[in-house]
Amino acid sequence: MKKKLIIIIVLINVIIGYFAYNLKPAQVNFDAKEENIELKVPSNFPNPVYDLKGNKLTPAGFKLGRILFYDRQLSLDQSISCGSCHQANAAFANFERPLSRGIKGCTGTRNAPVLFNLAWQQEFMWDGRLDQLDLTSHNAVTNPCEMANEMNQMSARLQELPMYPPLFKKAFGDSIITEKKMMKALAQFMAAMVSANSKYDKHVRNEQGGNFSEEERSGYTLFKEKCSSCHQEPLFTDRSFRNNGLEMRSADKGRDSLTHRRVDIGKFKVPSLRNVEVSGPYMHDGSLASLNDVLAHYHHGVKANPNLDPELKKDGRLGISLNDREQKQILAFLKTLTDKEFINDKRFQNL
What we know:
Blueprint: H1 2-23, H2 59-70, H3 82-85, H4 133-142, H5 151-160, H6 164-172, H7 179-191, H8 199-204, H9 214-226, E1 241-242, H10 256-259, E2 268-269, H11 291-301, H12 324-334, H13 340-343
Antiparallel strand pairs: 1-2
């Protein structure tokens, strides 16, 4: 009896400790120094599409955006932040978690996407329902299965905290906290997340550290032959919406949830392959755990979905023909897209 009582007490303490940790505000460094931040366009990149004139990057705005990104105060019960589901070591995807969890353990239906090179994106979310970077944070804050908050409630909460009004005043000229200012600060932080210093980038720019091995070079050649119609350089996405045959019948409506067109059922945004080595699990539902699984899917796992992309049903077969050697070569190339400088960039971390 005494042993059972001890076990119960231990379990209660574990549960209390878990909730105490998850309900306390994150330790955000409000005194972090401001960074001289700017959106530099890499020489191998096109011009960004984000309107910097409408939201100029400033050291104060970037700092405020970083603080907001990592502050659990933004969620209704103060249990999670943006950074809870978008972690630096996973290129700001949700590390090794197929589906992210919001407040009260609510599990979403889609895999958390990576966050980088957003200034080059025209549409956001897996179904592309948002066409402004400034609105992506609004979606996360108000989604009932994510932060489940209301914008006016959140701004009122931050207004009462002594550390926030001075930060908003320095960033935007006055201390009144509004939804628009919060979204602009977060957009400044995310727009500055540029990933363009992988081994691949150094290779195409003829920089030191960009020498490919024979296997990487062969993989690059194969990639351009078999994968680049959807994953176009240098962003490694053509920014289109496609069905890649994960299911015979799509459980998630995908693009159709915005367009309400049957031909868009099960179509999702083609993700960038940059940093793909570290940002698994993969696909919109996080159903493929490894890159080997992804390559195997395209080789022999593609389903004959009614909306299957034409690129995946050529020459009388489904998918893309890739033997074991070719899969290894493509995998070697994909690893050259890992940008360790970006992943380890302290400017984007909660320090």
